[in-house]
Specification:
Layout: E1 2-8, H1 12-32, E2 35-43, E3 47-55, H2 57-62, H3 64-67, H4 76-82, E4 87-90, H5 102-111, E5 115-118, H6 121-137, E6 142-143, H7 154-161, E7 167-173, H8 176-186, H9 191-200, H10 209-212, H11 215-228, E8 238-240, H12 248-256, E9 259-270, E10 273-284, E11 296-303, E12 307-314, H13 318-336
């Protein structure tokens, strides 16, 4: 079958996905029987386009200004409701306070009978149960691999490869910016110098608060709690401390003790409740997480059947997160074809 895609958001992730779809169209059809058309695009800054004949992803990348009309249907909700897409790919900006506008986009998609793939942390962190129930009631697919560690398959690995295991703890390095900064501090930089380098390389935003104060990691902790630990954890219950107060002396002291600082997001079952935290920890070098350097991420599942299982890979990036969307689209294809 041919899947009709609506891209809601056409920033870095949308462009990464379009690049993958353009490059791999023939291979995807030949190897997986996956065929697609992009029938709608809506971006709050670039504009919108609808086409029942399909929008060429290569042309969309080359000449977005010729395809996306800034005066046409700036309201993404209207695009979602009016297009004939079978799958809505929601890749707009994340808001961990309200989950909007992404949550409304997902509800509109489910309400009009469309499957959903999203990389947006807000809806998953704040409204996972309601959205999952809405998708289930409509017998629609709801996929979100890219919400944690980009294209590294943490969600699918835990749900599929570790199916049958009980998780007593989940912990990891879920933010590449902070891991890069800590790696540079270990090499001798101050926090300010390391942050400046991260910004120069595009790892950190001009305002890095979401990363360095632990908000981004907190969102991923909430998602993992929702997906794997019954979803009863609220953001107000997650203790959160960032890396801004770590000093070169702290880094050197840990090294002298055979330890290394990492910003760790963690979940732990404590009786009937799940405790969540985000905080810098000086881990012993025997812990697999301490070997994860630079902008790389890692997730560690503590299971009853396999003990500790660690997944390591890229945690961000245009093409890496675009790949997460592709993997979800292929899963939908396998499931409904």
């Amino acid at each position: 079958m041919k899947h009709k895609l609506a891209l809601i958001g056409f920033g870095n992730v949308g462009q990464g996905l379009a690049s993958i779809l353009a490059d791999k169209r023939s291979m995807l059809a030949r190897t997986y029987g996956f065929e697609f058309e992009i029938v709608a695009v809506s971006d709050i800054q670039k504009g919108s386009a609808l086409s029942s004949k399909g929008i060429d992803p290569e042309e969309l990348l080359k000449r977005p200004e010729a395809i996306l009309d800034k005066s046409l249907r700036k309201d993404a909700l209207a695009v979602i409701r009016e297009c004939d897409a079978t799958v809505v790919v929601e890749i707009t900006y994340t808001d961990l306070t309200t989950g909007e506008p992404a949550t409304s986009h997902l509800k509109a998609a489910f309400g009009t009978g469309k499957h959903v793939v999203t990389t947006n942390k807000g809806p998953l962190a704040l409204h996972f149960k309601d959205l999952g129930a809405m998708a289930a009631a409509k017998k629609l697919q709801f996929r979100y691999e890219g919400t944690v560690m980009a294209g590294t398959p943490v969600i699918s690995f835990g749900m599929t490869n570790l199916a049958g295991c009980d998780f007593s703890e989940i912990r990891g390095i879920f933010n590449g910016t902070t891991n890069f900064i800590l790696t540079q501090m270990e090499a001798g930089m101050s926090y300010g110098e390391a942050l400046k380098k991260a910004q120069e390389l595009g790892y950190a935003e001009a305002d890095p608060t979401g990363d360095v104060e632990g908000f981004d990691t907190m969102g991923k902790v909430l998602i993992l709690a929702n997906v794997f630990m019954d979803g009863k954890l609220k953001k107000e219950e997650v203790s959160r401390t960032g890396i801004t107060k770590l000093t070169p002396d702290d880094i050197r002291k840990a090294a002298s003790e055979g330890k290394r600082w990492k910003l760790i997001g963690s979940l732990k079952r404590e009786g009937d409740r799940v405790a969540g935290s985000v905080r810098p920890q000086a881990l012993p070098l025997s812990n697999p997480l301490t070997s994860v350097m630079g902008a790389t991420n890692a997730a560690q599942f503590v299971t009853d059947l396999l003990g500790e299982v660690t997944v390591v890979g890229p945690g961000a990036g245009r093409k890496e997160t675009g790949f997460a969307v592709l993997s979800d689209l292929l899963d939908i294809h396998r499931t409904i074809s």
